[in-house]
């Protein structure tokens, strides 16, 4: 990645990397606040410059002028499928297998319920350290179904394969951990599960838009993901769900609202599921939030996913090297896998004073990362708008925070942030 | 309602009614297309003029500039409860009993599941002519719970009371029928159900913002409703749900996502429901769609609900009288209750050629109503932006359509529209 004479990790070397970056021009398509280095695109992606204008068109011309006729005239009716197909191109899924709908949590409920309908087993495998809402949704689902399903939670990613035995109905796994950035081997785990007759649901919240994915190639059964992180769809953007084509017409999902009906405008009194992925739609979708998400999707679709992943890895490796070089003397410990091929698009460090370092001092200095209890500092790299010099400056500022003990001050407690 | 010398139902009389209308000034707060008389605000409410500016602020200043910190700084975190309390003021519910969240369909699933948890009965009463998505959601819920619940569907509103006997767990009823505008007696049915130990879930989709409601006074258990009709929240705006304070801490709902957790940012591995209404939250909410809805709520909160209802009744009565006078010779039949006190904010007429009259001819003439299979022409009155002269003109144009048989032309089939 380095073909010049500047010292590796120097400001000059970073400037040269930016100058040679094939994705560098994407940065000008985002509104980024001055004086901020934003390394939290894995919580909330930055604002594409085109979003405001597009939203304004939809509000004024579609809603305001064409009113109810816009459901047909402006493609509102098909928006969930149209956006789904765009997400599909990003995650390596075939046309007609992805839908943008509801929230990630609601989508998880739908696809896990569908999976449990297909499989007589009673065991659901997941990780103790999975993103909590996934576990919470599983708890609610199990209690509500009342059919004696049980959660089998593993304590370490190394235990996942062994936990998926022939008693298992479905494994519900997050591809890239929100806490450590550790990335699981989607293809290997899916194949292992299939060999034992189990299904897998993948949560791609921290993967889509930052990591190369090939859902078709990995023969994935079900997946869900998030629109407001690396897809830059805006706060609380709708989530997505994927169902393999081979399963779609075999499954039903419990949230069988009218948008999932075969003939929604026939207003028939009983439910008949639409063919294909559309049976996973439920109620009327929030068009304004879908509009913003579509702008984010259209932008990321212009970037080759391979280049996105390469840059993400390079940014993460640079950050790690600079942290080791500049900051490890103050007691930071790498909390992500050391091997970049096992990381998503973030890198995490543990520090006993992590909360104050991040929430009191570093954000004050204009470097926005994230803190995750009990001691994790989390830095995310959105390759479309984070550059190499950002990484260099972020580590320099963290060094300054440590040198001057800027974190050792009265604390602002309980800053809420959304992963 | 008439205190002048103009002939009742004449253009002059309508002009005078508009001149005396205490809500007339609200019309200038909406963007309404010229040459359109919009009588479909019960499908999609019109665009408030303030929406674009407010959305632009949220996009540029909150998302774009303040990024992740906006969850606290700009009240995103509490938006569902804040908006819920605003809806509560519109529907006569106490603070802390209403939440804006998800879609109406998803909310129905949550509250019916919660109700069924409270009651050992197996019978769910509803109407065969209920809005289909409510029935579809009940079907999905019953199948998914697998506990032998059964739907008892009545064919006529007159049969509802008799159907709610002591075997019934919950009645799921729509307050104002989407098809006929018929309004049920919320207080009487709720009291009847309570006397037999049953619970009631009210769907207020066609009521909130147009009909005076007193959920507290009627001792309602649960309710849901829609943000994109008379609340003018924009296409697919999030829905709302209401849970009586006395029930909140006794119930759980199955969609137990992290926004419903007692301590969402503690990232605990198991679920503990938040106290109060917030346990009915699920995933991360769509902030941009919530933003537009809040503008609609703030606008309607400026109008006394009693005046809104009075004008709605007056518009409906005027429409009925003019239809009888000008158009009944062509075979229209009133499909709504003749008594205004039994109607919501719409009036419906049946005609064998209803589809073509509405979808081919009348909309072409600039009068936007709605058609509902098999033969219903539906006209909705949003009292904040529909005026008396609109009603007069709409009937004159319908008369012209009938006189000149403008509907009797090659048909544009299958216009999708959202109730």
TrEMBL record, chains A, B:
One of its GO terms (cellular component) is cytoplasm. Pyridoxal 5'-phosphate binds at residues 105, 203, 206, 228, 258, 284. It is found in: Cytoplasm. The keyword Manganese does not apply. One of its GO terms (biological process) is anthranilate metabolic process. It holds the Pfam family KYNU_C. It comes from the Eukaryota. The modification N6-(pyridoxal phosphate)lysine is found at residue 229. It catalyses: 3-hydroxy-L-kynurenine + H2O = 3-hydroxyanthranilate + L-alanine + H(+); L-kynurenine + H2O = anthranilate + L-alanine + H(+). The keyword Hydrolase applies. One of its GO terms (molecular function) is pyridoxal phosphate binding. Pathway: Amino-acid degradation; L-kynurenine degradation; L-alanine and anthranilate from L-kynurenine: step 1/1; Cofactor biosynthesis; NAD(+) biosynthesis; quinolinate from L-kynurenine: step 2/3. Its cofactor is pyridoxal 5'-phosphate. Its main location: cytoplasm. Its EC number is 3.7.1.3. Gene3D superfamilies: Aspartate Aminotransferase, domain 1, Type I PLP-dependent aspartate aminotransferase-like (Major domain). Keywords: Cytoplasm, Hydrolase, Pyridine nucleotide biosynthesis, Pyridoxal phosphate. Homodimer. NCBIfam families: kynureninase (TIGR01814). Belongs to the kynureninase family. Catalyzes the cleavage of L-kynurenine (L-Kyn) and L-3-hydroxykynurenine (L-3OHKyn) into anthranilic acid (AA) and 3-hydroxyanthranilic acid (3-OHAA), respectively. This is Kynureninase. The lineage of its organism: Eukaryota, Viridiplantae, Chlorophyta, core chlorophytes, Trebouxiophyceae.
């Amino acid at each position: 990645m380095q073909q010049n004479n500047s010292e590796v990790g120097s400001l000059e070397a970073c400037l040269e990397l930016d100058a040679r970056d094939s994705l560098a021009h994407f940065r000008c398509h985002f509104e980024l606040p001055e004086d901020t280095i934003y390394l939290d695109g894995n919580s909330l992606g930055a604002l594409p410059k085109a979003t405001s204008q597009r939203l304004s068109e939809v509000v004024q011309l579609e809603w305001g002028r064409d009113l109810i006729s816009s459901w047909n005239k402006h493609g509102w009716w098909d928006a969930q499928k149209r956006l789904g197909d765009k997400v599909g191109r990003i995650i390596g899924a075939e046309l007609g297998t992805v839908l943008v709908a509801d929230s990630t949590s609601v989508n998880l409920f739908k696809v896990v319920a569908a999976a449990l309908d297909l499989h007589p087993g009673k065991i659901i495998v997941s990780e103790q350290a999975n993103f909590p809402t996934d576990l919470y949704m599983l708890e609610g689902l199990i209690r509500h179904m009342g059919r004696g399903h049980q959660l089998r939670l593993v304590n370490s990613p190394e235990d996942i394969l062994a936990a998926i035995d022939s008693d298992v109905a479905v494994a519900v796994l997050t591809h890239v951990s929100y806490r450590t950035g550790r990335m699981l081997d989607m293809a290997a785990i899916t194949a292992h599960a299939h060999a034992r007759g189990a299904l897998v649901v993948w949560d791609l919240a921290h993967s889509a838009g930052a990591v190369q994915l090939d859902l078709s190639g990995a023969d994935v059964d079900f997946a869900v993901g998030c629109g407001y992180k690396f897809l830059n769809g805006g706060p609380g953007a709708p989530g997505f769900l994927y169902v393999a084509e081979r399963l779609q017409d075999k499954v039903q999902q419990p949230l069988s609202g009218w948008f999932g009906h075969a003939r929604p405008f026939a207003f028939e009194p009983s439910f008949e599921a639409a063919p294909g992925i559309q049976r996973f739609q439920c109620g009327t979708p929030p068009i304004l939030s879908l509009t913003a998400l579509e702008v984010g999707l259209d932008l990321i679709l212009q970037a080759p996913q391979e280049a996105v992943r390469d840059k993400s890895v390079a940014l993460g490796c640079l950050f790690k090297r600079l942290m080791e070089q500049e900051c490890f003397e103050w007691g930071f410990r790498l909390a992500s896998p050391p091997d970049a091929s096992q990381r998503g698009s973030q890198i995490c460090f543990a520090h006993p004073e992590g909360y104050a370092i991040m929430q009191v001092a570093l954000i004050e200095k204009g470097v926005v990362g994230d803190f995750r209890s009990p001691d994790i500092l989390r830095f995310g790299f959105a390759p479309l708008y984070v550059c190499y010099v950002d990484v260099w400056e972020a580590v320099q500022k963290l060094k300054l925070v440590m040198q001057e003990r800027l974190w050792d001050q009265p604390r602002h407690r309980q800053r809420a942030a959304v992963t």
